[in-house]
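Fold tokens
===========
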Amino acid sequence: MANKNKKFIPSPEEIKAFIKLSEDSLKSAQLRLEEDFFRGTVSDAYYAAFYIVKAALINKGIISKTHSGTINLFGENFVKNRQVDEKYGKWLKELLKERTDATYEALREFSHQEAKEALEQSEKFVKEIKKLVGK
């Protein structure tokens, strides 16, 4: 649930922690790709993007406790006002869909190419969104 009405002071420590979670998720995705764990690669690629969005939102004094709320707030606060290109909003939604399939669709198979593309997309996403938090 989004907490848009409550004012709070962004915590630099929490922002740094989410940036680190994002970076760690990218590293994990890369390792999983190298070891042919494609489902895990896709999941970690999403979480890298999700965590950097959390950092960017917190930096603006905005919090959300859900994935969908976080994604919606990202769109409202960064895509809609053109702080980031709309492709990043689309990428985040695509990564969430893939992560959801990786988590809940037991029969869904991921190829090396799909996992690699998810990781590459996430790497570009994280690099761009880090600019919003000045890191």
